[in-house]
Amino acid sequence: MLYQSMQGISIASAITVVLLIWLGTLRNPFTAAYLFIKELLTSRKFLLLFCIMVCILLINKYELQIENSFNYHKDFTPWVFSMEGHFVKTLQDFFHSSYITPVSVFFYVIVFQSLLIASVGVYVSDQNKVFVLATCFAIIINYTVAIPFYLFFPVNEVWSYPPSGVSFLMLDVFPNFEREYRPLSGLDNCFPSLHTSISVTMMVLGLRSGNRRFGIMTTISAIVIVFSIFYLGIHWLTDMIAGTILGLLASNLGILFAKLALRGKEGSMLQQRSKIYDSL
């Protein structure tokens, strides 16, 4: 029943966000919502950055419509397959299990998007302003870099390319995926893998934030999500490598931009805190 509609997924995602914030802070997760709203109302820098992030996410939402308006019909999938062959099929066949599939779908569909929201909630609750801003900067960088590739370097999902021999295991648990979720994720929006880049970004930020508990949570999530993109038959190895590079770039640039945005007294305090985190 969880994967019968987007309404069910939205409810599950909301519950997951609350649990992630609670586990990441061991404090009332609803306090994070109050602090988030307070930060929006009192910090023009955060408000502006948050609005930019929302805009880039909206552009990504309508990317498929933009793509369909182009008279551009390239397909780089055969080229990718010629480089890496049956890597995904070999991994999928080796690990295929009725127990692993629902866990992979849960992390791919629900935990992935929940981490985006929970990360901001955790850092707001920790009053860690630099990582609140760094998360927003990093998300903007990820999508800004990925969208042009989706428009001009289309690569189809592994399962949809017959020579790959890969099965789309997502449908075993989420039979309505093509109708309910596909409008949010184009079939040829593979390179780079945003599931990888965002997960790696959240992991790096979590590990560098000073919140060890949340760092462990984001690391485990990133590992499972990256495994899931292969196991479910969605992404190529090439997508994952590009996504990892993008995630590392976005997270480190996000921290750098956040430090620059918080110059002065806050910036000085941030540099001292960052040195302590980096030494851990």
UniProtKB/TrEMBL annotation:
The keyword Ribonucleoprotein belongs to this UniProt entry's keyword annotation: no
Residue ranges constituting the Phosphatidic acid phosphatase type 2/haloperoxidase domain according to the UniProt record: 181-254
InterPro entries (UniProt xref): PAP2/HPO, PAP2/HPO_sf
Highest taxon, organism lineage: Bacteria
Membrane-crossing segments per the record: 6-25, 46-62, 105-124, 131-153, 191-207, 214-234, 240-262
Keywords associated with the record: Membrane, Transmembrane, Transmembrane helix
Pfam families registered for this protein in UniProt: PAP2
Protein name per UniProt: Phosphatase PAP2 family protein
Organism: Paenibacillus dokdonensis
